[in-house]
Structures are given as C-alpha cells and as structure tokens.
C-alpha cells in the first residue's frame, strides 16, 4: 500500500479511463487496508481507488509499478480477488495513506463481482503499456517550406516496423508471465510431495522423529491445507478409490459441518474440499460417488437429496425432527419469515434455509404466502 499516493482523482491530458468497478476493498498484502469500500478505476496510466462516501479520499498508483498479477477465486465467505505484485516504492514518491508496508503486493477484493472483466482490461493495459507511448508521442506537423523538412516519414514500412515491435514486446511480456506462473505451479507440486513425505514419516515413524517434531509436522500439513489427499495414483480407480475418498471426507468434513449447523450444500462441500486438496483437485462425479458411500461405510455423515433436487451433506446426528422444530420455533417467534430472513438467523445459505422451511411446510407445521413480495412462511393454524 505504500506505492499509493494521494490523488485528486482527475485524469491527466493523455490519460483515458478504461474501466471502473464499485464495491472494491483494498488489502495491504494479506491485511485489510484501513479504508472502506470504494470504486476501483483503471486508466491507461494508473490504478485509482476512491472512497464511495468521502470523494476527497482518493489514492492512485502508476501501472508501471506492477510486476505481475493473478486472480484469486472466491471461496466460502470470501470474495474473488486480484493479487497485484509490485516493484519497490520509488524514493521520490508522493505522500500517501501508507508510508511503509511490509508487503510487496496488494489485493483488490471485489464484493460486487466484476473481477473477470477488470482482470481482462488490466491484462490489456499491461500488455499495451499505453502510458509509455502517450508521453513520447508528438503531433505530426504538416505544411511546406521549413516545416515540411520536419515532417516524419510515416509509410507502409514504418507501420509494419511498429507492428513488429509491438508483437515482440507482447511476446516478451507473455513469456515472462507464463514463466513466473510455471515456477509457481512447480513450487506447489513440490509442496504436495513434501506434504506426502512428512505424512508418511508421521505414519510410519521412520527415523528419529520425536513427539514434538510429529506435532510440528502435522501443523505444517494443516497450514498447507494438504493432508495427504487420496488420489487415483495412490489408491487406483473405481470403487476402492471412492471408498478411501469417502473415509477421508468423513474425517475432514466433521468439524466444518458442526460449525455450519450440521448441513452443507454439496456445492459448498466441493469448494471446501478442493481448496484443502491444493493441486489434487476432485471432479464433481468423484465427490458425488464418494458421498454416496457414507451410509454403507457407517460414517457419521449422510448424502441427502431434497424433493427439489438439492443435494446436501449432513451429520447423521442432524435429525429431520430438529430441523422442523427449529424452523417452526423461529417462524413462530418472528410471526413470519422469508428464506433470506431465516438464513440470517441461522447463519446458513439461503438455499438450505429455504429447504428447511419447505420441509416444515411439507410436514404440515408451516404454510406459505406466495405474493409479488416473495415467498413468506407462517405458522400453520389451520
């Protein structure tokens, strides 16, 4: 964040606005910046951020400060982000909100989406580097006499030369970005192999591994988010693979399900599991087949399909009667509830909250009012 300087938010003469996006929060590295939500503006020269409420609070950073950038996908309770890695702050930089920062990167967190288009336009500007061209360009004079001698010769050869220079520059930038991405992928694979090696040492207790080292190794695995994932390479394919995967899911999902009230949509489970597995991603089909084996393996989890077709993973101890009683109690206390209001009360997704209300309605405890204002549930007094 120490690369940003205070700005009036106005564009320079040769500067053009490319795209702007509301609902963007800034991160100084991994830490939230001490700024509210604002508008991110991308121009041909700068990255600008302006506070929505206080328009005088505006900061900007030259695009020339950017080394590379990458997308960070959204997760459960987390917005999608663009991570931007930066050059060190120049010595003559103008004052800004941060004088010093321990990080060499920032994050743009997109609370109202729009990160895909913003990332695409940022990629175009970093490839074209229009901030370098506009400062050096001069108008071509026309006329006769002494002025004619200063007219630049621009013909087919000159145009072709310019096109070739731009192509080479673009190829060079793409090669640099791909090279850095390749290094990151190789590093991630090394981490996976390291985690497997550590896990095997813990399992077999090979060598002189003390109890303290064992605890430390386990903490390393948890911090990496990769606890020896079950893969087709290690456990083959077909039924045996899905059996082993189901057992690992049973251990992994116990705590998250308890934190979320005993139930999670299968889509949420898919995102949670793949984030923890790192590079060893699961396909939706493999996850579904593994979840179908919970009951046959007598694990404390169950795959449930509601009448609407929504699939969830729930704890076996999470009974249907408890869900119905919870829905009835909350609706009775409030007089009436929508799925959105019920979701806020329980801290669940709207999808799962609606399924609980529909289940209570099916059992005759609730009734509905479906109007232009939306679907609202009431205690069934009939």
Overview of this protein structure:
Strands 1, 2, 3, 4, 5, 6, 7, 8 and 9 form a 9-stranded antiparallel sheet that branches. A 3-stranded antiparallel sheet has the order 10-12-11. Strands 13-15-14 form a 3-stranded antiparallel sheet. Helix 6 crosses helix 8 and helix 9 crosses helix 11. The chain is α+β, with helices and mostly antiparallel strands. It is globular, with a radius of gyration of 28 Å. It folds into 4 domains: 127 residues, Pleckstrin-homology domain (PH domain)/Phosphotyrosine-binding domain (PTB) (PH-domain like), CATH 2.30.29.30; 53 residues, no CATH class; 69 residues, Orthogonal Bundle (Arc Repressor Mutant, subunit A); 64 residues, Winged helix-like DNA-binding domain superfamily/Winged helix DNA-binding domain (Arc Repressor Mutant, subunit A, Orthogonal Bundle), CATH 1.10.10. GO terms for molecular function: phosphatidylinositol-3-phosphate binding; ubiquitin binding.
Major sheet, described briefly? Answer: 9 strands, antiparallel
Proportion of residues in β-strands: 15-25%
CATH architecture call of the largest domain? Roll
CATH superfamily of the largest domain: Pleckstrin-homology domain (PH domain)/Phosphotyrosine-binding domain (PTB)
Q: How many helices?
A: 11
Order of helices and strands: EEEEEEEEEHHHHHHEHHEEHEHHEE
Give the termini distance in whole angstroms: 61 Å
State the domain count. Answer: 4
Mean pLDDT: 77
Q: What proportion of the residues is helical, as a percent range?
A: 40-55%
SS class: alpha+beta
Class of the largest domain, according to the CATH hierarchy? Mainly Beta
Rg from alpha-carbon coordinates = 28 Å
Unreliable residue stretches = 135-154
The 3D shape can be described as globular
């Amino acid at each position: 964040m120490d690369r940003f300087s205070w700005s009036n938010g106005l564009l320079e003469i040769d500067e053009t606005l490319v795209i702007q996006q509301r609902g963007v929060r800034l991160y100084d590295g991994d830490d939230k910046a001490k700024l509210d939500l604002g508008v991110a503006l991308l121009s041909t020269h700068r990255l600008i951020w302006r506070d929505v409420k206080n328009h005088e609070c505006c900061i900007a950073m030259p695009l020339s400060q950017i080394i590379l950038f990458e997308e960070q996908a959204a997760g459960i309770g987390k917005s999608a982000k663009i991570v931007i890695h930066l050059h060190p702050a120049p010595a003559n930089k103008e004052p800004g909100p941060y004088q010093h920062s321990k990080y060499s990167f920032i994050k743009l967190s997109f609370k109202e989406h729009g990160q895909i288009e913003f990332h695409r336009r940022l990629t175009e500007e970093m490839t074209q580097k229009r901030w370098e061209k506009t400062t050096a360009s001069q108008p071509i004079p026309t006329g006769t006499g002494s002025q004619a001698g200063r007219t630049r010769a621009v013909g087919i050869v000159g145009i072709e030369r310019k096109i070739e220079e731009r192509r080479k520059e673009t190829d060079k930038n793409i090669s640099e970005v791909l090279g850095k991405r390749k290094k990151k992928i190789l590093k991630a694979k090394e981490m996976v192999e390291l985690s497997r090696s550590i896990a095997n040492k813990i399992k077999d207790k090979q060598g002189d591994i003390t109890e303290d080292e064992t605890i430390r190794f386990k903490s390393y695995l948890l911090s990496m988010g990769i606890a020896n994932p079950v893969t087709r390479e290690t456990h083959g394919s077909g039924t045996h693979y899905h059996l082993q995967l189901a057992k690992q899911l049973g251990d992994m999902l116990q705590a998250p399900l308890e934190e979320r009230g005993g139930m999670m949509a299968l889509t949420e489970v898919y995102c949670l599991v793949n984030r923890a597995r790192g590079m060893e991603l699961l396909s939706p089909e493999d996850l579904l087949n593994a979840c179908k084996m919970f009951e046959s393996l007598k694990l404390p989890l169950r795959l449930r399909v509601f009448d609407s077709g929504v699939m969830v993973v729930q704890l076996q101890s999470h009974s249907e009667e408890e869900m119905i009683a919870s829905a009835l109690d909350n609706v009775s206390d409030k007089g009436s509830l929508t799925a959105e209001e019920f979701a806020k009360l329980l801290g669940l997704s709207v999808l799962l909250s609606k399924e609980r209300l529909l289940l209570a309605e099916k059992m005759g405890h609730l009734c509905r009012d479906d109007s232009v204002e939306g679907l609202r549930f009431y205690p069934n007094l009939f």
